[in-house]
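Why Trimethylamine monooxygenase? Reviewers of the renewal asked for a concrete example.
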Amino acid sequence: MDNKENLQNKRIGIIGAGPSGLAQIRAFEALKERGENIPEIVCFEKQSNWGGMWNYSWRTGVGKYGEPIHGSMYKYLWSNGPKECLEFSDYSFDDHFEKAISSYPPRPVLFDYIEGRIKKSNAREYIRFDTTVRWVSYDEDTRKFTIVLDDLKINKTYSEEFDYLVVASGHFSTPNMPYFKGIETFSGNVMHAHDFRGADQFKDRNILLIGSSYSAEDIGIQCYKHGAASVTLSYRSNPIGHDWPQGIKEVPLVTHFDGDTAFFKDGTSEDYDAVIMCTGYQHKFPFLPDELRLKTKNNLYPDNLYKGIFYNNLPQLIYLGMQDQYYTFNMFDTQAWLARDFMMERLELPSEGERRVDIDTWLDRNSKLQSSFDDVDFQTYYIKDLLSFTDYPHFNLDKIAAMFKEWLQDKEENILTYRDKTYQSVVTGTMAEAHHTDWMDELDDSKERYLYGAEEEELIPE
Ligand code: FAD
Ligand code: NAP
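Here is what the prediction returned.
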């Protein structure tokens, strides 16, 4: 059998049709467009649509088939980084919207953009929606993965075999929910950021948020914007440290609760109406056995992944998007292109020992990072490394790194206005347009309002 025939007989399973899983499909489609043969691809997605996190669900807890809800996004969620930092280099914002838009679009607009690229091909055919991957095993003799699947719509369990498995199931879905003494005596709402669906319900309420990262920062300013009486952010390691407007403050970590009163490490205490745990997420793969499961916290270089994607003990098992993320869509693309070339047998990996040395070098670099700027440079360098092996259309990473640093400064200058800033695309050179309304005054996050504005309703296509 020649190599081409051999490839045609291979089967690739992808778990998840979020931005990472879709990037994997897109990487193969790019070859197909050039007239090349590709292996059989099947992507399993437990939701009824693609987009992963960007596929908003009003539900919390479980979905219509009793599966845990994946989405952690909420109404009024706007991009928290400039869109120019995540732009696909093979499908620009100009390609999609055919006009300049602002640098910080709301969720429905980014969902539309993600969908735009993948809709250009027949990618939907590869995806089995409403299908949960229940269990995976690997047979050393046949060198195949067996995947046990639940077709949720017809309540049927079945299994299939694959030569490669791409895990693109995300890692911002299973809440990390710490316990604080006495919290069971709190009479108000206690929730995790995963279940937060919009700030409206907290109007005129005194809210306590625990955590000091992106969720705490953004849910804090959302609640402020939508009329919360007060917002307190309680940090464990370091405060976020912005110059907060009156009505938002940071305090050290909660020590305990007594009824509706929270007590803090600095000896102060205060009464609250609701507590939101912005305490991050767990990397959780309930469908993977011990020996195949990535075990990591949220960091920039998870251990045991060669080039950040190949499971070192078994590189046919590929994880996408498992890093903490400054870069998102374009990083997933570079990972997916590299993974594709390995699965297409165009890229040979070094020995397990050599891969281990490479991983250790990255871990060592990671352990020396001291500031957010260092983090940005690290992830930039990581993507440059991946790009050097693939034909993903190159883009100016140094310029993106500079944009990330400017973004960090913009937030420090004014957390309420940073989303009004504009940046220049490295893909097309287009300068973003300022949004028609300042972010603080914009209460409508719909695509129509965003693209056409309030006064121009007649421009909205039917
Ligand atoms: P996900 O988007 O999480 O997709 C994973 C997919 O796998 C889901 O569709 C899920 O249903 C499916 N899946 C999981 N388990 C199974 C299973 N067992 N069987 C079948 N299917 C399964 N990034 C930005 O760039 N800008 C932002 O502004 C931004 N905001 C964010 C806000 C929040 C609240 C969160 C949590 C994340 C945000 N992110 C943002 C990061 C976001 O995670 C990435 O943009 C992106 O969605 C990651 O893509 P992914 O495909 O790796 O994972
Ligand atoms: P995260 O970045 O992993 O941060 C977790 C936070 O929880 C850290 O501050 C951590 O504190 C704290 N924490 C963990 N355990 C704790 C404990 N036991 N007690 C007190 N604090 C604890 O998670 P995240 O903030 O949820 O962000 C996840 C992703 O969502 C990011 O990619 C982010 O960009 C995205 N996001 C985007 C938006 C948007 O506006 N578009 C909004 C929200 C989230 P330590 O520092 O002490 O570890």
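The first strand starts at residue 11 and ends at 15. This is the kind of structural detail the renewal will allow us to pursue systematically.
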